[in-house]
């Protein structure tokens, strides 16, 4: 039974390519400005108090690794791509339910579990598109600037980013089965992901509240650590993956019990 | 085993009962008409049967599978065709791509045969389809896997008269081949034409369940006669005429007898114009199921 998976994958293709194109352009723009900020970055690190650097997740900004890990990835991957995954997933069930598309689908010999799982499975399309697109622009950018990046670290920063994006998708899919209106589901998912990202940053400012950040998914994905220190937090990635599975399980549980 | 057996099926939304203790069975090889005004609860019954919504109480069996048993119901749906009232096609797909999608789920051994009867423009995107083309695509997807049971919700809405006739003939042929058709409609004449038996639903309650011929006999015809001059009502009105209303030289009534007898009777008068039509569903309700007019419910 792959009819839904195939159909959903086709549906996601255009959006994924558009998003990848936009993010590639944005990344290229980051590379264009890197040489100009490189010198100031060292100064920036010297003058600004450490907490501000922490909030921005900035470390070794004057090196290419620090720049990509502390500037490019947190913005493009953690924030923008995370929001995209939450947004797209939040529309998956709610839109089909709203347009009565699900009536036709579920009139066939298809279980509700497989509807959710195949729809989530179709996220391989934006995952592959984004990873390939971003890796390509990184390699090109680094080469043009005459810098070099550790290939393993580059691979890992992409690989370990996947569970993070999946958690964002999990938040979206849960919203998608809870809310009847597409707009409500998508707005809620988007706001949750943005809010979690903000909480993670802010909680680092105050040691008393740093534990709050432990509840946010971005705490478990640190591109700076991967690129600058070559620290690969596999356990953290595992935690994200487990969270994703729990969210999908929750979505299935809610969906099989509700009227559509 | 009945194809569909509904037992005391109830679905409540707060205080409103969209379906209220409905019970009936549809046998194999039968065209069952499910008749009721818009908002009576027809679609609710169908969505309960498909497991899309859950009953508040009571249950139903579709091809022997209890609708509360998700696994069994999912398996039974391999042998079910469904034409919804609101067609939720993926509009960016072409007709052909949509049929390919459904065939991957259920098969399509009768696709070509059906496309000769109902011919939506397969190479165009569904978003460009007229209501009639969408309905035809819906009919093809509902029958292309040769299901034992077909549940059709207002199946001829949007079809031109020629295609409606074709649909009726197709359904009769399916019935003769042993298939079961559950035909929901608010159009009495259509149900009269194709159905063997009819259940009438009103405000969520099943108010009648009978053979179509019995209903026809009791349903009568709506007649309006325009006479050349005023006529003595006592001479004109017969026993078979009920609800007679006379305004000047126009007489309106519901005729419950044989059509031939009515025509025999009418030729004895000087007549300008005659209109004989099917009674409105509301009138049938009024005459045979109590006096209150059905209100728009769920």
UniProtKB/TrEMBL annotation, chain A:
It is found in: Membrane. GO terms for molecular function: ABC-type transporter activity. InterPro entries: ABC2_TM. Coiled coil: none annotated. The keyword Membrane applies. The chain crosses the membrane at residues 12-34, 71-93, 122-145, 151-175, 187-205, 237-256. Pfam families: ABC2_membrane_3 (PF12698). It comes from the Archaea. It is a multi-pass membrane protein. One of its GO terms (cellular component) is plasma membrane. The keyword Membrane applies. Residues 68-252 form the ABC-2 type transporter transmembrane domain. Keywords: Membrane, Transmembrane, Transmembrane helix. This is ABC-2 type transport system permease protein. It comes from Natronorubrum thiooxidans.
TrEMBL record, chain B:
Keywords: ATP-binding, Nucleotide-binding, Transport. GO terms for molecular function: ATP binding; ATP hydrolysis activity. Gene3D superfamilies: P-loop containing nucleotide triphosphate hydrolases (3.40.50.300). The keyword Transit peptide does not apply. PROSITE patterns: ABC_TRANSPORTER_1, ABC_TRANSPORTER_2. SMART domains: AAA. Residues 4-228 form the ABC transporter domain. It comes from the Archaea. PANTHER family: ABC TRANSPORTER ATP-BINDING PROTEIN, ABC TRANSPORTER ATP-BINDING PROTEIN NATA. Belongs to the ABC transporter superfamily. This is ABC-2 type transport system ATP-binding protein. It comes from Natronorubrum thiooxidans.
